[in-house]
Amino acid sequence: MKNKDNILNASLATEFSQKYLAYALSTITHRALPDVRDGLKPVHRRLLYAMYLLNLGSKLQPKKSARVVGDVIGKFHPHGDQSVYDALVRLAQDFSIRYPLINGQGNFGNIDGDNAAAMRYTEAKLTEISELLLENIDEETVDFKSTYDGDLQEPLVFPAKFPNLLANGASGIAVGMATSIPPHNIVEICEGLKIVNHDKNVSIKELLKVLPAPDFPTGGILNNNKSEILKAYTSGKGFFELRSSYKIEDLGRSQYQISINEIPYQVSKSTLIEKIADLIISKKNKLIDNVLDESDHLVRIVIRPKNRNVKPEVLMESLFRQTDLQVRIPLNMNVLNSKLQPKVMSIKEVLVNFLLHRYEVLSRKSEFRLKNIKNRIEILIGFIKVYHNLDKIIKIIRNAEDPKLQLIKIFKFTQNQVNAILDMRLRNLRKLEEKEIKQEYKDLLSEKNFLTKLLSSKSLQKKEIDNEIDFLIKKFKDDPLLGKRRTKLDKFGSVNEETFDNEIKSDDPLTITVLKNGFIKSQKSFVKNLEEQIGNENSSLSMHARSNDKIILASNFGKFYTIEADNILTGSSTGRPISSYLSLTDNEKIIDGFRFDSEGEIFIYTKNGYGFIALEKNLETNKKTGKKVMNVKGDDIVIGVSKVIKDSDSVAIICDTDGKNKMLAFDINELPKLDKGRGVILVKGKSLKIINATAFNAKSVIKDQIDKTLFDKSTIENNYGKRAQSGKVIKNFKNQVMNRNFENNIRCHL
Predict the structure, then answer these.
(1) Catalytic hit among 49, 85, 99, 121
(2) Residue 536 gets which letter from DSSP?
């Protein structure tokens, strides 16, 4: 609704919603996602088309990159020059894309992560591969649209004789969706295209016999997990495990060193070496003595072991786990289809869509050529008629007031024919020219018949597409750089986890303390009196651990977090905020913690009297956001955990009901073992509040954390019953934390 000043009154929420939706659609369809047909985003398509118009062919001289960028942003792409130049640089880097689309001359960056030189210093031209993408673009094979200012026309898509999407891959982040497609080997892609071209019902499992996995420009070794690869290619989503290739070099006298010759895709060599050096300096990997960069134009990273007894496979396994010498490459084949709609496709769908595009290009190219041939044949027929009546036609042209009208009237020429005749030069009237015209007429007639049959015959079209694919196979198959597979396929071996932990990590003694202010710290020794640590008003939890331990932390919201003990800051009296290690939500606090034991079991309980037993291996997580294990509702919170040791046969609960302290003990088998959930009711009562709980052996006494008896056998027997009963009142209760069965681990009372 407009007011008197012609200002539109609108809801801010509505306007933001509409504008953001428009922005999201623009980002998805015109920026971040590639087209399944040519595998290009708009900026790349505009860049290559601008270079095509500048006549920067692969066999011609290059031009300054600044000139190219200027044409792109001035004519086609109304965005910043740096973003266009960055796109140009990446298309020229043979370590970034498998088949470079631009031939760059000058400093275009390197695998160390160094930036390219400024655009005024570099030059660029198209490669033969980008020329394959553009081939036949002037033959009405694709649709064009007006540029942003309406002055020029730009192609909506390239004819794309080269299957660029799978060959070079793509990555991008839009609004609410993203794409990540790794590069593949062109020869293998073409073999897959031939199969799909002849059998649209072929299974993806059959396709994987010729197109087994991605092929990265930097080589490496890909985990040949066939079931996972099949699953990823079928759904269009998944991941691939890629690791560096290496050699063990014998130095004599039982000494050796390891040379790394290929690093994973999109990993910076300099950053990788810095990470390995940091592991050595921080003593997080005790197997490595030194790392050297001996690279020239090829990658060569040398790893020296600490001593001759270090097993090379264990050393490399440690680096695969601790550095980017092994990475997970995501697969998310989210692309734009021919209607510019985003869709996650299987690998077979990508191949089918490319072939459909090539069939359309073939049809439109044939129609364009057929139209031109018909026009040319019409003119050639007129020329032949001229040679048969040469003297008469010359006389009419010389003497008639309107020769065009006379020629049409006497010889029945068409408008096109008479225009071409009047435009002829006298030197073209020689006898040799007549022979050439008749031969051209004969050749064009033959081509016309072929194109007419081609347009009406699916089998001929299929044969023509096969010829195109065979051309690509022949062109690339014997090329040692472009045709040969660079990434090897192998099944990754594994090192025994316990052996690995013992080999790689030192087991230095630590004392880890969680402070009440939300900080955590570590000391490089075992503090003798942990109770004194807890006696300090700032401490809420203190434990002994080893530097190769994992620490599990429990929060009041029922989430569990994992921290490597040697990652916790040492030597600081104040420590570091827990939030720098974990992603805690509002009002979430760490209430307990312990050393991880893969074989252990934990009793978890809440303030409102719910609990269950969980396996410790199900509590471990690599996520900074933690793992939700106990589901708490309303005002309920987790208030503690207790280790279930081998002789634990019972559970004791201390609670407050109506201001009275009560105790209930029952058989531990009444508790379920769950991976996740709310658990069962432990005890009943009005205004119930759990104070403390533990797992214990009914034949013994219940002690506190410093080994003092809290409840003797008679007290336990007197309060023994069934789960979910109300319990009995206990006299002279001291509000102390019962022994939680964690060795050298003390927690203050919440």
Answers:
(1) 121
(2) S
> Residue 370 and residue 455: Cα distance in Å, rounded?
10
Residue 179 has pLDDT above 60, yes or no: yes
Two structure tokens written together for 13: 């929420």
Question: Which domain, by its residues, includes 462?
Answer: 362-478
One domain for residues 555 and 434: no
Q: Do 320 and 374 fall within a single domain?
A: no
Say which amino acid occupies 585. Answer: T
Q: CB 57: neighbour CB atoms within 10 A?
A: 17
Picking from 450, 433, 441, 740, the residue whose alpha carbon sits closest to that of residue 605 is: 740
Of the candidates 265, 290, 268, the residue with the CA atom closest to the CA atom of residue 279: 290
Answer yes or no: is pLDDT of 204 > 60. Answer: yes
What's the pTM? 0.77
Residues 621 and 723 in one domain: yes
**What is the rounded CA–CA span in Å between residue 414 and residue 420?**
10
Residue 691's contacts (CB-CB under 8 Å, 6 or more residues apart) are 654, 655, 656, 661, 735
Q: Are residues 151 and 55 in the same domain?
A: yes
Looking at the structure, tell me whether residues 510 and 659 fall in a common domain: yes
Residue 202 in any domain: the answer is no
DSSP H helical ranges for 389-486: 390-399, 403-411, 415-423, 431-456, 458-477
Give the C-alpha separation, 83 to 15, whole Å: 29
Amino acid at 670: E
Nearest to 99 by CA among 133, 72, 68: 133
Q: How far is CA 473 from CA 162, 185, 561, 710, in A?
A: 11, 11, 52, 81
Domain count, the chain: 4
Q: How far apart are the first and last CA of the chain?
A: 59
696, 708, 737, 742 from 704: Cα distances, Å: 12, 5, 6, 12
| Residue 37 CB-density burial (10 A; 0-12 exposed, 13-18 middle, 19+ buried) | buried
Q: Three-state secondary structure along 241-310?
A: EEECEEEEEEEECCEEEEEEEECCCCCCHHHHHHHHHHHHHCCCCCCEEEEEECCCCCCCEEEEECCCCC
CATH number at residue 603: 2.120.10.90
Model pLDDT, residue 320: 93
Residue 726 lies in a domain: yes
CATH number of the domain bearing residue 367: 1.10.268.10
**Is residue 236, in this structure, part of any structural domain at all?**
no
Instruction: Return the pLDDT at 535.
Output: 62
Are residues 563 and 699 part of one domain? yes
pLDDT per residue over 475-498, tens digit each?
999 898 999 999 999 998 776 666
125-142 average pLDDT score: 97
Alpha-carbon distance of 439 to 290, in angstroms, equals 76
* 60 and 103 share one domain: yes
**What is each CA distance from 48 to 43, 98, 132, in whole angstroms?**
9, 17, 11
Are residue 300 and residue 377 in the same domain, yes or no?
no
Task: For residue 491, tell me if it sits in a domain.
Answer: no
What residues have CB less than 8 Å from 17, skipping those under 6 apart?
none
Sheet holding 660-667: strands in order across? 689-696, 650-657, 660-667, 728-729
CATH number (domain holding residue 57): 3.90.199.10
Q: Catalytic residue at 359? A: no
The rounded mean pLDDT for the chain is 91
Q: Which two tokens stand for residue 488?
A: 């090897």
Decide if 699 contacts 665 (C-beta within 8 A): no
* Contact status, residue 690 vs residue 609, Cβ threshold 8 Å: yes
Given a contact cutoff of 8 angstroms between Cβ atoms, the answer to whether 40 and 159 are in contact is no
Residue 354 pLDDT exceeds 70: yes
**Overall size of the chain counted in residues:** 750
Q: Are residues 327 and 264 in contact, defined by beta-carbon separation less than 8 angstroms?
A: yes
